[in-house]
Amino acid sequence: MLYKLKIFILRIFGYDKPLRVAFLKYLSLKYKKFRPHYETILLESSNEAKKIGYKEVSVLELGVAGGNGIISLENCKKKIEKITGIKINIFGFDYGEGLPKSNNKFDLPFFWSQGDYKIDKEKLKKRIKSEIYFGDVKETFKSFIKSNPATISAIFFDLDYYTSTKNFLNQISENKDFFSPRVYCYFDDIFTINHYINEHNGELLAIKEFNNENKEIKIGKSLASSTDFKFPLANDKLFMLHNFTHKDYFKNLNYEEINKNLSLNDYKVGNLLD
Q1: What is the DSSP string of 45-60?
Q2: Own/partner long-range contacts of 131-134 (Cβ < 8 Å, ≥24 apart)
Q3: Structure pTM?
Q4: How far apart are the first and last CA of the chain?
Q5: Is the dihedral of CA 72, 73, 79, 83 positive or negative?
Q6: How many CB atoms lie within 10 A of CB 233?
Q7: pLDDT at 234
Q8: Quick one: DSSP state of residue 94?
Q9: What does the pLDDT read at residue 37?
């Protein structure tokens, strides 16, 4: 007991982030539908879509499992639609029977097992309004594209496996016109507390190979900063897909919070100098 207390104290005092981050993480673990990172990514991707000039967007959750993620997205959808004026369509993708069997060493077979995260289809169907595509994402995403969806502005990756993630990423290039100039991408499975995941397996390997295979579309990790408070619990797992050849890629977003013409006569600077 004393040893466990010692380890606990060492971890508390050795934590390299503000303790409020740990508190938020605890809340997200205790209350599965508490996902401030989902809400803020949905908000910011909708804000950007509005500035580009879109009226409607598609948001994907890849890996629905128990449904807490898609329920969380639906819970904040109406408020964000009202604020931004953007219609948000949420779509889920799930194998339907839990994780499939894998013999691929890059899928972390020692960590995940066949049947993990099996979904209760009937129960979830009663809780949500969003459409869920069941089956292998290699096929279900093709069916989704055939429906001619609105521009994809955000993707929540929770496919666990390297192979499943790669099967989705492999379809982006041929369907790039359906993706926004910049797509917010949240990768849930790029970290485990045992430090099993790195750039040589799992989602990170799929991302690395995707970037090596594509010149005009790249998925990158922005540098995190202590001055960034927009994305609680998401900074370390938030990536951006840049669709460089998109017709709207060069469209200026004119962010109001950035004043490109600050001078000594500007009131913002003047106030600081007074």
Answers
A1: HHHHHHHHT-SEEEEE
A2: 131/91, 131/92, 132/64, 132/70, 132/91, 132/92, 132/93, 132/94, 133/91, 133/92, 133/93, 133/94, 134/94, 134/95, 134/96
A3: 0.84
A4: 58
A5: positive
A6: 19
A7: 75
A8: E
A9: 85
State which residues of the chain have pLDDT below 70: 12-34, 226-229, 232-233, 255-274
d(Cα 204, Cα 128) in Å, to the nearest integer? 30
CA 194 – CA 173 distance, rounded (Å): 34
Ranges of H-type helices in 85-116: none
134: exposed, middle or buried (Cβ count in 10 Å: 0-12, 13-18, 19+): middle
The count of other CB atoms within 10 Å of the CB of residue 243 is 22
Q: What residues pair up with 243 in beta bridges, in sequence order?
A: 217
Residue partners of 216: CB distance under 8 A and separation at least 6: 173, 176, 243, 244, 245
CA distance 15 to 253: 37
Domain ranges of the chain: 17-273
Q: Which CATH class is domain 17-273?
A: alpha beta
* pLDDT value for 272: 43
Q: In this predicted structure, what is the pLDDT of residue 10?
A: 75
